[in-house]
Amino acid sequence: MKRNLNGQSRLLLAVNGLFVLAGALSGTFLNVYLWKVKQDFAMIGWFTFSQQIALGLTFWIAGKWVKERDKMVSLRLGIVVSGLFYLLVLWAGARTVEYIWPLGFLFGIGSGLFWLAFNVVYFEVTDVDTRDLFNGWIGILGSVIGILGPWTSGVIISVMKGDLGYRVIFTVSLVIYGVGILLSFWLKKRKKGGPYHWLGPFRHFEKDSPWRQAIPASAAHGLREGVFSFLGTLLVFISTSAERKVGQFSLVTSLVSLVSFWAVGKWLHIRYRYVGMLIGAVLITGVIIPLLWNVNYLTLIFFGIGTSLFMPLYLLPVISSVFDLIGKSEDTVEQRVELIVLRELSIMSGRLVGTLLFIIVFGWFPRMTTVTWLMLGLGASPILSWIAIRKLFKPRADAPDTV
């Protein structure tokens, strides 16, 4: 079985790494920066909510350009818009909290343009035999960046007075985005597809369609992501009042994640996805439980290490299985852009519901115990994701080769 990545796959990994590095340096502390200006969970929640709306709509609308014209333009434009976002944050400074919605939309548009193009190209440069390996390398790369990026930012912010440290790391992110754009020109121009079907993403609910399992599984996956995308590191800062601790938290958890993604990407083959995803889903839920009794740096480190250790068991199967569905036949390959949009809209729906639940419930009961119980409830959604998608695993183990 072929288990090696080709040159274009490795180059795509490098471009992805630079994009993720820029986000890790600044994005890890973006919500902390906002919290220091205005201590309001609802504000952070609405900022995340606006990002997710923009991201999902961008996937749907930009799908036409990506399929019918040039994927690389979308990828590069996504990097440019993301850089523009941090440029505006630098300009606005403490007034950033006054522009949560427009800045959230801008951030979501940049992310949507990049990740739509990335996911389509990722599908085209991998196949069923290399998808888990590629995803494993994505996890490894993200972990290495998570070790170095946030820790470095935390040190810089702690050493420099006032907001100077934040302005430095936001500027460095702008430079890295520029390098990412330059490197992307070595990616080959991809073939254009057929006409884009605007309602294509919504036509996969027919009886016996495997997407009837994949869509709710992706939505359940998003339930957790919406809130956990900002809550973990923010709780570390709230508990310690130290950016250095946030960087330390990211360093430790990313180091564990590095080893875990490498191991799972190397050894978790298709036939083990059924059991592997279930074990991962249960364990990443279980590590939240200590937070119900006490939220401090020790319990947060336990939660972070546990999540980093077991997340790949859950994440790689759910991602790879959905992309394998896209490569199931010539018809689905032709519709790959619409199906990737469908996947993202499903995840976005889950993210929006999870974030809204957090904002509404915390608004009714504004206390830390509400936050931790919501974390447990939303954090258990990977189990729902496994329940929804589990039927796809066993047939896939014996299915004919896919693209």
Automatic annotation (TrEMBL):
Any GO CC annotation of this UniProt entry: plasma membrane
A GO term, aspect molecular function: transmembrane transporter activity
TM ranges: 12-35, 41-61, 73-93, 99-122, 134-160, 166-187, 272-293, 299-326, 347-365, 371-389
Signal peptide boundaries: none
Top-level taxon of the source organism: Bacteria
Keywords tagged on the record: Membrane, Transmembrane, Transmembrane helix
Membrane topology of this protein: Multi-pass membrane protein
Localization per record: Cell membrane
Coiled coil: none
Species this protein is from: Fontibacillus phaseoli
Record carries keyword Transmembrane helix: yes
Entry annotated with the keyword Heme: no
Protein name, entry field: YQGE family putative transporter
Any single Pfam family the record assigns to this protein: MFS_1
Broad class of the protein's primary localization: membrane
